[in-house]
Specification:
- By secondary structure, the chain is an all-alpha fold.
- The protein folds into 2 domains: 50 residues, lambda repressor-like DNA-binding domains (434 Repressor (Amino-terminal Domain), Orthogonal Bundle); 61 residues, 434 Repressor (Amino-terminal Domain) (Orthogonal Bundle), CATH 1.10.260.
- The protein contains 9 helices and no strands.
- Helix 2 crosses helix 3, helix 6 crosses helix 7 and helix 6 crosses helix 8.
- The longest helix has 11 residues.
């Protein structure tokens, strides 16, 4: 989302009134923002703050394996930005991609389609 605004991490963090290193960790999927922080970032970037929590279960599964978004994406053979968008609920994985991510993180791939009613976007 931030890249579409052409803002740097520092500009986004400053406008959202948070430290740039903390914002970086949120964007990288390392940290989870509080609701207040999520609302401020979303207001700056122009999206619904609840998107931070759409696939929280997926993020928690990844963190339980002690993998970064990059490591998960590499093992699932997809690009990290695409994986980030899947984890953030911005994109939905194809069945093939869902199966690869699930195999990497150790869960049933159909979990992707329990919450969402769609199944198709792929990079």
């Amino acid at each position: 989302m931030r890249l579409a605004t052409h803002m740097t991490e520092q500009e986004t963090a400053t406008k959202a009134k948070i430290a740039q290193p903390f914002y970086h960790n949120i964007e990288a999927g390392i940290k989870n923002p509080s609701v207040d922080t999520a609302k401020r970032i979303a207001a700056v970037l122009g999206f619904d703050w609840t998107r931070f929590y759409v696939r929280r279960w997926l993020r928690e599964m990844r963190l339980a394996t002690h993998m970064t978004e990059q490591e998960t994406a590499t093992k699932a053979k997809i690009a990290q930005p695409f994986y980030h968008n899947i984890e953030a609920g911005i994109k939905n994985p194809s069945v093939d991609t869902a199966k690869r991510i699930a195999a990497v993180l150790g869960f049933d791939w159909t979990r992707f389609y329990e919450d969402e009613g769609t199944e198709q976007e792929d990079e």
